[in-house]
Amino acid sequence: MKADDLKYIVKEKYGKIATQSKIQNETSCCGATGSCSTVDYTIFSENYDKLKGYNAEADLGLGCGIPTQFASIQEGDSVLDLGSGAGNDCFVARAIVGESGHVTGIDFTEAMLEKAKRNALKLGFKNVEFVQGDIEDMPLPDNHFDVIVSNCVLNLVPDKKKAFSGIYRVMKPSGSFCVSDVVIKGDLPDKLRKDAEMYAGCVSGAIEMDEYLDIINKQGFKNVTVHKQKEIAIPEEVLLNYLTKAEVEEFKNGDTGIFSITVSAQK
């Protein structure tokens, strides 16, 4: 499948997710409507309830970590959130930067942007903005942001080298990023990797962890640090949508794994 086709699928899928509640998203495959029937689980998202700035209406349960936790955001910083969705991480970042800072969210799904803007309006924030754009080709200025965060989004970007190159470009010379994302160890079965709906649902877009970190290093970043990694236990009911029972057992007992990681680096 071509990159443009995958982008279309992701945009269409997340446009539908924007109209769902957090509960609806958590009872499906990373928000992939209807593909998990009645399975009720949360395999990726973290609990934001106790974080300053948390806004329940902006939390669709789509993250796989809390990137702001390790982002070293300071009061007055200019922060960019890649794939900002309904604004969850933007509002948490805004609580840290305060009135003197600024937070920008970028997303290419119109329905998500509309939801995020409504949430910001309700909260009365003047220093949080949301712009439409593709992470592979961001309509943002060079050397502009102190800190860049992203939560379970870059795995959905077809060209990760281009994405991290763009992060490097828009970041200030003294800047840093912290992203939570999904990666794999070992060879993910082809049926999982190639399925477009699973791709839009967080898993098959993931690449090998070593390859992921290598891409970051090759863009020129320094002090690359993995702060957290958590193995994702996908329910057997979900795996059986893509694998035979024998393949499921082989998958569960092998060295292959799907992980959420939170990684930071500096320019």
Topology:
Layout: H1 3-17, H2 22-26, E1 78-82, H3 88-97, E2 102-107, H4 110-123, E3 128-132, E4 145-151, H5 160-170, E5 171-185, H6 190-194, H7 196-200, H8 209-218, E6 222-231, H9 236-239, H10 245-253, E7 257-266
Parallel strand pairs: 1-2, 1-4, 2-3, 4-5
Antiparallel strand pairs: 5-7, 6-7
Report on the architecture of this protein.
With 267 residues, the protein is α/β, with parallel strands linked by helices. It has one domain: Vaccinia Virus protein VP39 (Rossmann fold, 3-Layer(aba) Sandwich), CATH 3.40.50.150. Helix content is 33%, strand content 22%. The chain is built from ten helices and seven strands. The protein has a seven-stranded mixed beta sheet with strand order 3-2-1-4-5-7-6, with helices on both faces. The longest helix has 15 residues, at 3-17. The chain is globular, with a radius of gyration of 18 Å.
